[in-house]
Amino acid sequence: MTATILLVEDEERLARFIELELSSEGYNINVAHDGLTGLTMAREAPPDLLILDWMMPGMTGLEVCRRLRATGSKVPVILLTAKDEVSDRVAGLDAGADDYVVKPFSIEELLARIRAHLRRNQEDNPDLLQFEDLTLNRRTREVFRNGRTIELTAKEFDLLDYLLSHPRQVITRDQILEKVWGYDFMGDSNIIEVYVRYLRLKLEEKGEKRLIQTVRGVGYVLRD
């Protein structure tokens, strides 16, 4: 499963360095160079983790963090800053940040902190299902792939939720009918194939790999 990280850093050389390092670790990286753009991106396509520089022109990273928390966002936030006084750390954590990394920093330490927060977030948030670059939020009923929002009908969402709940497991047609449509479903016997086709059309843009695989004569499997 691939996590999406939003990096908001106005120092472009540093931002590029972090972006390359995180990309080489297999993360999907989106970058903004000012606070307002970063806030907009975080609201429109919530990342799995947010790395925020504190001191930016216009809107500071601290203000971005405050505004996100005010909307109920629980995305893990790591603050990057040259401020290393205890009072600064307290201010950052009180604004809603989960962690605080002082510049200059070791990229290995940043990577370790990212891994720790992503593990913790997944354990603490059963409403968030992820597979590869696909994310489903049960609480908000939102779906994202590669940072873009995917609009699904209620039944498409329920079907995808069921598949994401059983990654890499072959799910039979009967299991899908029972869990997604209910025991008493008396509709078209091809309804599953129809909805899988709908999902594939919405989930797959040109060049993106197919995640929902057909197991002939049995059912379907979410496979990387």
From TrEMBL:
Which Pfam families does its entry note? Response_reg (PF00072), Trans_reg_C (PF00486)
The Gene Ontology CC terms held by the record are: cytosol; protein-DNA complex
Biological process GO terms, please? regulation of DNA-templated transcription
Keywords assigned: DNA-binding, Phosphoprotein, Transcription, Transcription regulation, Two-component regulatory system
Location of 4-aspartylphosphate modifications: D53
Q: Which residues bind DNA?
A: 126-224
Record protein name field = Response regulator transcription factor
Q: Which organism is it from?
A: Leptolyngbya sp. NK1-12
